[in-house]
Amino acid sequence: MSFPKGFLWGGATAANQFEGGWNEDGKGDSVCDHMTGGSVNTHRYFTNTIQEGTYYPSHEGIDFYHRYKEDIALFAEMGFRVFRMSVNWTRIFPGGDEVTPNQKGLDFYKSVFEECKKYGIEPLVTISHYELPYHLMDKYDGWLNRKCIDFYLHYCNTLFEEYKDLVKYWLTFNEINCLTMSIGDILSGGFKCEDGPAQVLGLPDTQEQLAKRYQALHHQFIASAKAVKLGHEINPEFKIGCMVAGGCIYPYTCNPEDVLLAQKDMRMNYFCGDVQVRGEYPHFTERMFEEFGITIKMEAEDSDILKSGKVDFYSLSYYMSTCSTADEEALKTSGNVVMGVKNPYLKSSDWGWQIDPKGLRYLLNDLYGRYQIPIMVVENGLGAIDKLEADGTIHDDYRIDYLREHIKQMDEAIRDGVDLIGFTPWGCIDLVSASTGEMKKRYGFIYVDKDNEGNGTLNRLRKDSFYWYKKVIESNGNNLA
């Protein structure tokens, strides 16, 4: 295999999905703390008031807040060289707009980072990962308000100064391109909304709603660029990246209409990447906004801000590929309209996500050819229902198979010339699903005893994939057996 010496093997998590301790030691409530549990067949609900007797999965998560030493020790046992995690904004600034940070929150993350360093694990810290303070939604309408840029920068400055000797790798926003879709209205944008099913609270893709999303996204672009510049001033050794929800999109047929549509849909990987890597909006922006019928407000200095805050590396999540088609009948019969038309050459997971390792190689080559900067795959994995055997073992060969094939294709991409520097599979320890609020949709190498209703001991158990991934890291990707 061709993984370079020093390749960053590890795993990825998010505070709102595994940290817990939602109102302890001065922490405020985030937008995610207002999201109830759900499932594949029933909605998660958003409630403006935390309701007594209602289950909110993020309130406990898997209790990393009290068990972080145990969990980091398990990551170290696997040989992690990097651990991707997020800081919960409301643990540092409970409302998001305070001047003085919460010292107990600062102390907690310092302890986490020091614990990582004890084992030689580099923290990779996502600054904003669906953890917008609820107060910023309620009072300011979230990222629609340009004031959020200043609140975010104050938050970043606090993190950079506090942890400048403990953290080297940072990501400004998680899957920033999700804000272009209705799924991002609450978690990414923090738009004000009424109580109701979270999956449908985002308004339809009307002209007005699209304008709101792209205006909020522009504010995040400016915030990210300013954060990159600020971070480099505080510590020139910082490596600060963007994070994009990546997707490989094929034309469903060789009909030129399908080919052109697939090319257009692949812009989901480029729109945010161009702004954050190249420092300017891509060439197709003017026509895209014209077709949407929207105009976003930019300040005179914004162009220079974007140019002065280019990221050091591009990171992405990758789970699946899709197909694009202009054939309305094919879309109707696919049963997969949101994710495109199903590819007949691929298998699917229990949740209908199509499994395509070679699509990752395709996408990595495509992105590296466009940007020519280092790349990390910071989310990848298989959500599945794991069976806990009577003897406490969990046999998850299907997860091993999934990851093995994706690692093989990452190796191929490196051989192709892609500067791939790290891999952090998603949910390295079982955690709450962001999309459904479930626990039974598991990704981890470590099993956590907790069910969809929040019941369980929270005991940690090693799955078969735990021992397999340990061998992969020990061999730097040479032993995939």
- Which CATH top level class fits? Alpha Beta
Global structural class: alpha/beta
Please list the strands of the largest sheet in the order they lie side by side: 1-3-4-5-7-9-13-14
Helix content: 25-40%
How would you describe what is shown here?
With 481 residues, this protein is of the alpha/beta class. The chain has helices at 15-18, 64-78, 89-92, 103-118, 134-140, 147-162, 184-187, 198-201, 207-234, 256-265, 271-278, 285-292, 302-308, 328-334, 357-371, 397-416, 464-474, and strands spanning 8-12, 45-46, 82-86, 122-126, 169-171, 196-197, 239-245, 248-251, 313-317, 321-324, 347-348, 354-355, 375-379, 420-423, 446-448, 460-462. The strands form 5 sheets. It has an 8-stranded parallel beta barrel with strand order 1-3-4-5-7-9-13-14, surrounded by 5 helices. Strands 2-6 form a two-stranded antiparallel ribbon. The protein has a two-stranded parallel sheet with strand order 8-10. A hairpin with a 5-residue loop joins strand 11 (347-348) and strand 12 (354-355). The longest helix has 28 residues, at 207-234.
Q: What would you say about this model in short?
A:
The protein is built from 17 helices and 16 strands. It has 481 residues and is of the alpha/beta class. It has one domain (8-322, 348-474): TIM Barrel (Alpha-Beta Barrel), CATH 3.20.20.80.
